[in-house]
Design a protein that fits this description.
There is one protein chain. By secondary structure, the protein is mainly alpha-helical. It folds into 2 domains: 33 residues, no CATH class; 184 residues, no CATH class. Helix content is 71%, strand content 3%. It has 9 helices and 2 strands; from the N terminus they run ββααααααααα. The longest helix is centred in the C-terminal third of the chain and has 36 residues. The protein starts with a strand and ends in a 5-residue tail after the last helix.
């Protein structure tokens, strides 16, 4: 069945393989391997907006100062591993743990909320790790980069886009994330102390608002 997008392009949405019409295995191969440039651009920019690595720069600079550095390659690899894991095993993995997407999103929103409070109030809630290892996973790789919003978005996007498109879109975002992480010192010099404080406070409020929105969207289904 064909469906016309807002941009006027035609996309082919294949129905489940269990139906009589789609029984041929070629449909499964097409769904997995098909690659369209328009789809790639759409998914790449969707993930870029959700990850919001640009908006995370102030807190990354703060954490880098607290820890003495950030293991850029390791953060990027762990973030990428989480995204690919959720691309293939997202919902089954959560179900295995007895969780659902809503519970996962609420948990991530609480961590994001605490990070926002740190930025606005200038108070340290997360204990500084001098060896950088613990903070590489939490809270940098998760939930700042591969957060609940990013992972649930991946689960949603894979229903409409091929796996090849999803993988290349994730890779493109990981490359940009690595470049940003390697450029934090340069960005810090450009902003200066006063500019860094102002930007940190501003994006702290943004993080709080994002956390509240994620919590409000998902918590109502958990409270009975």
């Amino acid at each position: 069945m064909f469906h016309q997008s807002k941009a006027g392009n035609w996309f082919l949405f294949l129905r489940p393989l269990t139906t009589v019409e789609d029984g041929d295995p070629i449909f499964a191969e097409t769904r997995t391997m098909d690659f369209r440039l328009n789809d790639f651009v759409t998914v790449t920019f969707t993930l870029f907006a959700v990850i919001d690595i640009i908006g995370t720069i102030p807190i990354l600079i703060t954490m880098k100062s607290k820890m003495g550095g950030i293991r850029e390659a390791m953060v990027t690899l762990i973030s990428g591993a989480l995204m690919v894991l959720f691309l293939y095993l997202g919902e089954p993995f959560l179900n295995l743990l007895g969780l659902d997407v809503g519970s996962f999103a609420v948990g991530g929103s609480i961590v994001i909320f605490i990070l926002g409070l740190e930025m606005v109030l200038g108070t340290e809630f997360f204990k500084s790790e001098s060896n950088m290892r613990a903070a590489t996973v939490v809270p940098i790789a998760f939930p700042l980069i591969a957060g609940s919003g990013t992972l649930t978005t991946i689960i949603s996007l894979k229903a409409n886009y091929s796996q090849s498109v999803m993988l290349f879109a994730i890779l493109a975002n990981l490359i940009f994330i690595y470049v940003v992480l390697k450029s934090l010192r340069f960005i810090e010099r450009i902003l200066g102390p006063a500019g860094l404080i102002a930007v940190r406070k501003f994006f702290g409020v943004i993080l709080l608002a994002i956390a509240v929105k994620i919590f409000a969207t998902n918590a109502h289904g958990l409270i009975k």
